[in-house]
Amino acid sequence: MDVRNKGFTLLELMLSMTIMAVIAGICFGVFHLGVRAWEQGETRVIANQRLRIIPELLRRQLASVSLPEWIRRDRRFWFFSGTSRSLEFFSRISLLTQQDEGGALVHYRVRSDSAGRDTLELYEMDLLHLRQLGGDVPVLTDGDFQGLVSGWHSVVFAYLGPEPLNPEDDPWVGEWDSTTRKGIPRAVRVSVQSRAGGGPLVWIIPLAVTRDDG
Fold it and tell me: 20 to 30 A Cα–Cα from 4, which one of 20, 77, 145, 158?
């Protein structure tokens, strides 16, 4: 009767360990793919939520554009100005403090990172504080702004001016210079492109100005 050792040989042990390593690698790869898919799904959900929230925030503030009377008395008519990458105005509504009274100077801007992706940022200053400064806005730095949403391919503002004399002319302009234009545009257009090559999402927000007697 053969009573020799019936244990695993070194070759069998190495083969078993190799098979276990391969199985573990496959399991880890499947798990990693699952985690990445879940993270990408979460990212898309958050991005879609922000795409719904941001235009509503802009609409609330732009619908409440106001001209404080003390600004008018001091002959400061720059209460609304904008470029394709920034937007500055007075509003009755402050988003950062969640107060609907008193109002604020509001400044939106688009900042690009090293990869060329755009971030929409917001700065607000309470009107009482601005009045204490004599109406002079301090020089703003990157640290003064709060990021609202990032990772977009592009964010562009445009402004609806008066009806053109020539119907073929485009009434939308890429800049609203407060030193050469009086009043405010009839509407603001925000074009957002979430990825390169994709079609932009366009929001058009009508404007109407009110006067504050403060």
Answer: 20
- What domain range is 88 assigned to? 47-212
Interatomic CA distance for residues 160 and 200, integer angstroms: 18
In a domain, 11, yes or no: no
Q: How far apart are CA 152 and CA 177, in angstroms?
A: 26
In a domain, 14, yes or no: no
Does pLDDT of 110 surpass 90? yes
Tokens of 185: 């545009």
Task: Give strand pairing partners of 99.
Answer: 94
Interatomic CA distance for residues 179 and 176, integer angstroms: 9
Number of domains into which the chain is organized: 1
176 CA to centre of own chain: 20
Whether 161 is covered by a domain: the verdict is yes
Phi/psi of residue 63, nearest 5 degrees: -70, -15
Say if 2 falls within a structural domain.
no
- Render pLDDT for 23-59 as a digit per residue (tens, 0 to 9): 888 887 777 777 776 665 555 555 555 556 777 888 8
